[in-house]
Amino acid sequence: MNLNIVLYQPEIPQNTGNIARTCVLTNSKLHLIKPLGFSLDEKHVKRAGLDYWPLLDIEIHESYEALREKYQDGTFYFSTTKAKYFYHEVEFKEGDFIVFGRESMGLPDSIRDSDPNKCIRIPMINTTTRSLNLSNTVSIVAYEALRQMDFPVMK
């Protein structure tokens, strides 16, 4: 397993399906934190993940605190538009956790404020509009982390 991709209370099934597909193709584990804005049985989730869904390494957590308790020794990064560091300025390592917020609200202050030095963002020129789509954001950050690890999925 290369990375741990964490979705905090995801709301849009198609995004989660697309992210699941990215996780399979990058040998990354997907962690979903409840409550989910949809059922994992929904056809939109499975359609977006298509035939990748049975290959997905997935773990569902009752809360963010439960995730942190289980993985106390993990290194966590937080993707947020409110970060001072760009995603390429940190040094990712195999097994790192990258936490992404809800589509409508991002990450709560309590999570972002828990370690501001681990908050990362993708530069955007136009900041008057909404941020990038969640599945695009996950792909950008995941592939930067894999690049830093010399693309272990390709070996």
Automatic annotation (TrEMBL):
Domain tRNA/rRNA methyltransferase SpoU type residues, every copy: 3-143
Binding of S-adenosyl-L-methionine occurs at 101, 122, 131
- Known InterPro entries for this protein? Alpha/beta_knot_MTases, SpoU_MeTrfase, TrmL, tRNA_m1G_MTases_N
Tell me which UniProt keywords the record has, alphabetically.
Cytoplasm, Methyltransferase, S-adenosyl-L-methionine, Transferase, tRNA processing
Q: Which GO BP terms sit in this record?
A: wobble position ribose methylation
Main location class: cytoplasm
Compartments where found:
Cytoplasm
Q: Does the keyword Methyltransferase apply?
A: yes
Q: What is catalyzed by this enzyme?
A: cytidine(34) in tRNA + S-adenosyl-L-methionine = 2'-O-methylcytidine(34) in tRNA + S-adenosyl-L-homocysteine + H(+); 5-carboxymethylaminomethyluridine(34) in tRNA(Leu) + S-adenosyl-L-methionine = 5-carboxymethylaminomethyl-2'-O-methyluridine(34) in tRNA(Leu) + S-adenosyl-L-homocysteine + H(+)
**EC number of this enzyme:** 2.1.1.207
What the entry lists under Pfam families is as follows: SpoU_methylase
Is Nucleotidyltransferase found in the keyword set?
Answer: no
Identify one Gene Ontology CC term for this UniProt entry: cytoplasm
Top-level EC class, please?
Answer: transferase
GO molecular function terms here? Answer: identical protein binding; RNA binding; tRNA (5-carboxymethylaminomethyluridine(34)-2'-O)-methyltransferase activity; tRNA (cytidine(34)-2'-O)-methyltransferase activity
What's the family? Answer: Belongs to the class IV-like SAM-binding methyltransferase superfamily. RNA methyltransferase TrmH family. TrmL subfamily.
Role noted for this protein? Could methylate the ribose at the nucleotide 34 wobble position in tRNA.
Q: What is this protein called?
A: Putative tRNA (cytidine(34)-2'-O)-methyltransferase
